Amino acid sequence: MTTETTPKNGSFHFWGCSDIRESLGLRADSERHLLERLESVPQESIYYHTVRCLLRRRVFPTPYPHDFSTWVANEARDVTLAERLAFHSPFDFLDGEAFRQHLLETLDDHLSRLPVAPAAVLGKPFYFLRGHLVAVPLEIVAWDLRSLRKALAQVDDSSLYYHAVEAIGRLGNPRGDFAAWVEDVLRLPSLARRIAEIDPFVMSLAGVRARLLEIVDSELALGPSA
Amino acid sequence: MTTNGPVLSAYEGVAPPGALRLVRYLARDLAGRSFLHVNSTREGGGVAEILNRLLPLLDELGIRTRWEVISGPPEFFVATKRIHNTLQGADLPFTKAHQDVFLETSRAAMRQLDLAADLVMIHDPQPAALVEARASGAKWIWRCHIDLSRPARTTRSFLEPFVRRYDGAVFHLAEFAWRIPIPSYLIHPSIDPLSDKNREMDEREVERRVSALGVPLDRPLVLQVSRFDPFKDPLGVIRAYRMVRKVRDCVLVLAGGGAADDPEGAEVLARVREEAADDPDIHVLLLPNDAHLDINALQRAAAVVIQKSTREGFGLTVAEAMWKAKPVVGGAVGGITKQIQDGVTGYLVHSVEGCAYAVRRLLNDPEERRRMGELGREHARRNLLITRHLADYLQMLRLHAA
Q1: Which strands make up the sheet holding B34-39, listed edge to edge?
Q2: What sign results for the dihedral spanned by CA atoms B203, B207, B213, B215?
Q3: Which residues in chain B have Cβ-Cβ distances shorter than 8 Å to A125?
Q4: Mean of pLDDT values over A115-144
Q5: How distant, in Å, are the alpha carbons of A13, A95, A104, A168, B273 from that of A136?
Q6: Given CA atoms A165, A166, A168, A173 in this order, what sign does their dihedral have?
Q7: Which residue numbers of B have CB closer than 8 Å to A's CBs?
Q8: Which end of chain A lies in a sparser environment, N or C, as judged by fewer CB atoms within 10 Å?
Q9: Do B343 and B327 form a contact (C-beta atoms < 8 A)?
Q10: Does residue A20 belong to the interface with chain B, where contact is any CB pair within 8 Å?
Q11: Measured between CB atoms, does A122 come within 8 Å of chain B?
Q12: ipTM field
């Protein structure tokens, strides 16, 4: 998959995306079982449960950033492990396998300190999924800061996800598309830095949109820009 | 197919921004394909309701859609209801006689129905055996709308060989998906914000319709809308209401209709009426299947909406209530747990007492009702509308049509 946000004329082309979920038929009933499954599930499933899950978090943030920490807290009732799993996102690691290793080591270390592995005794098991994502050109284009602001207010939530999150994970753009375009095309490095600092893992997509608009509005209020 | 239903452009400004563009893009490669749906009733229940709204939209997108309905003698629907109940965990016998009438009716339907299409979606267990008549080259998908998390072994063993013959299966939730060697997709059902059941309605119309049903509006209204089915726990709702009534004056409405494929509804309704007989503030309404506007009015008039199911495929009445900005108290089962964000858009409950406490709390706090209702409406807009459902179907079809 490629991103086409910065074609030759330098304008920003918005894309949206749609994701359909597929069950892998695998489940975990306890933290020990979760560890064992994490050793072998496809990388795309770990990506789904830690990154793609943000695409479904559209209106309100959840207490924990990804599906593993949420399950451990809500179903296995182990808040300590949930906190330990919550802090890092896959983007803090060189690649998906390094992140898998981090999850395994955290689980292993936690379980080694407990006499019994917590389980979803009264809660629901964890079900492993993967997603099939299709990117869609929205035919919405920005060419300066004002048109970017206008587009950010009107595009679908999935477009914010695609450019701010998926761009980092699958498309290999560590700054995210918005910050990269603002820096490389509009030549506004300070604004780009503030955009890149938005952390989608601790907010909803509605929150990401609100923060983007706030930052762009403050830049526009400073006077003539790109 | 005749397209006298909704048109896509009507959802502009109602669906989330960008949703229609997404749908149109996804449909481009599927134009001209034929897409057949088969279920067991044209009226009553969530499946028929969704198909009535979804198919005209697929048609508008250039996909040639058709809808066939499997029919049979009353014994067939007794057998399919037994399949339905035992797949949802009821401890009832699924006998050889049930199996025979199911297979016999299925074979007759294979001869009677026109099953030719590029893509065939079979809804629920009733027509599941029709897959034996699939033509080569056609892609068949089994779409299951019920809670399969605790199926009776006999029934599953009977049904699973048919399911394995499909190219893919669709379940509402991961916990319902069987471990079978075909792709198992997860797609939530949806509501149509423009249908009679969900369209905007002014206060005067709400008052007029609710009053015409004999329901007073001088006290807070607590409502459950659902078929009269043991899994919807209407008797549990009455018990919870009686607990609330001890501390708060309110009115309970249990409203629902029947479905052509549900022979048990009358028995449950009789038990509910008997239980409610001595209380003039409990209103048990058996509404016709086309009473969508009355349901709409009741949901808008309600202070709190309950869906206290003990098993639930998805529970679209939750989404309907959320769309009308109502806080919802729902049983923590099946798809209800995917719709209600506990403590944010309503409350998930596990008992009669939990239900009573949540209703009491909400009746006591109008600000919490307002806040939860608004968040629920936005959640429904982004996740539970027909436009999202359409995009999911199109994407799945693209995967199989490639």
Answers
A1: A126-142, A12-28, B184-186, B168-171, B139-143, B119-123, B34-39, B64-69
A2: positive
A3: 175
A4: 91
A5: 11, 26, 35, 17, 52
A6: negative
A7: 16-19, 21-22, 25-26, 171, 174-175, 177-180, 183-187, 341, 344, 375, 378-379, 382-383, 391-392, 395-396, 398-399
A8: N
A9: no
A10: yes
A11: no
A12: 0.85
pLDDT at B85 over 80: yes
Which residues of A fall within a CB distance of 8 Å from B16?
A: 156-157
The tens digit of pLDDT for each residue in A37-56 reads 999 999 999 999 999 999 98
Residue of B160, B184, B340, B374 to mutate, interface with A, max A Cβ within 10 Å? B184
Contact A156 B22 (CB under 8 A): yes
**In angstroms, rounded to a whole number, what is the distance separating the alpha carbons of residues B354 and B306?**
12
Centre a 10 Å sphere on the Cβ of residue A116 and count the other Cβ atoms it contains: 9
pLDDT > 70? residue A226: no
Asked if B174's CB is within 8 angstroms of A129's CB, the reply is yes
The two beta strands, B34-39 and B119-123, are parallel
> Is the pLDDT at A8 greater than 70, yes or no?
no
Which residue's structure tokens are 């789904």?
Answer: A48
What pLDDT digit, counting tens, does each position of B375-393 carry?
A: 999 999 999 999 999 999 9
pLDDT mean across residues, chain B: 93
